Amino acid sequence: MSLRGRLSLIFALGTAALVVISGLLFLAQLQSSLNSALDDALRTRSDALAAQLHAGSLPAAASFDNGQTGQQNGQFGGADEFAQVLTRSGTILYPSGAEQPGPLLSGAQLAQAGHGRFTASTAVEGEPVRLMASETRWHTRTVIVVTGATTDVANAAQARARAIILIGGPLAVAAAGFAAWLLTGAALRPVDRMGRRLDEITEHDGDARLPMPRTKDEIASLAVTTNRLLDRLQQALTRQRGFVADAGHELRTPLTALKAELELAARPGRSHDALSAAVAAAAGDTDRLIRLAEDLLVLARADDGIAFLAPAQIDVSGQLQSAALSFAAQARARRITIDMRAEGGLTAVADPGRLRQALDNMIDNAIRHSPDGGVVTMTAEVQEVADHGRGHHPAGEVLVIEVRDDGPGFPDEFLPHVFERFRRADPARDRADGGTGLGLAIVASIADAHGGRAVAANHGGGGARVRIELPVIPD
Predict the structure, then answer these.
(1) Mean pLDDT of 163-181
(2) What is the SS3 assignment for 377?
(3) Same domain for 323 and 467?
(4) CATH of the domain at 349
(5) Cα–Cα distance list, 428 to 249, 274, 417, 420, 437 (Å)
(6) Do residues 337 and 300 lie in contact, with contact meaning Cβ atoms separated by under 8 Å?
(7) Which of 11, 25, 148, 186 has a beta carbon 3.0–4.6 Å from 131's, enabling a disulfide?
């Protein structure tokens, strides 16, 4: 069942319950009010008759009915109002009319009247009546004064009210359900329009958005939220397309070079040295392709939220020393000094392989941008910070690993884009040096996966600073 149908049904059922409860309460209140009015009249007549008995005389048989005689109804032939004076044993001492049935009270009711005034709704010869009885004195005798009246008028009023409820109640329920159907349809019409519009949006409609309702209600808020979601999806799609295009561009260069080298190697008459050089060049291009594929895989896993960490207790100083040794030959070729400054015994919980990958990328980036004879400085220490990343640890200790070089530093306009993929401060130089523009992006992804962050800046003495901040207590 549609939402519109469910809301209409719920509204109709609620209205039906309200009508039933209100109707029952109204009928009960009506009956109580009518009985109360009859009881007031019966009490007045009973007090008047008791006053006459206290005076020592009985009224004439036909004088107490105020001259009002009722039509014959059923088997009870008498006036609409009547009275009797009975002894305790039930003997009739006084009837208010010439045609009266036997005693109006049963034996149990006579005994009840001896304990105080009471009222009762009963039937006399098939006619519904309301009776009031009380005990009083006549001369030296104790007698029971009974006054009564037929309840035809009250019963007719209740029957009319019941008929109105039985007829009007279903009509009110149907009207409420129909009104709920119309109102719900009007309220959900903007949702229907938004649904149809969403069905029409395809991946090629990058700028398509939902129409904004003029009402400032929840529907309009839903449209705003949905448009924001479409904006984020469009941005993600744009990034994905750009990522694929950049990856294709990066893969095309080494693949083209590899193909050319293999074609040259396959030409007849090539010397052994030429073949060896071609194979060595092809191996270099293959290594570059492997590194690029691995980098793309890491970034893809990070984007999909796949856990790619295997945390363990590691020796941070040992990790820095090992990374520095692996780049010693590359640095020595350009007379670059790698200066490591880390306290001994510094430990942390991190993925050793991924942390080493981040360190290698940071050092490689620093060496490639350092001048010949420069210095690359590596430091590691625990610092107290107020906020070290995504808010997992608003305050506390973090492990800060920083790599600094003596190069020209990052261009000011490039600083906001340092950790973006395939972004280079000098695209031509980085590609010639074997860079793919993914090194620092991977550094940021690894730091983020550990619950930390990566930061890039220029230091006052010249050169770039890249550091990662990892929580001492991992997420």
Answers:
(1) 90
(2) strand
(3) yes
(4) 3.30.565.10
(5) 13, 28, 17, 17, 11
(6) no
(7) 148
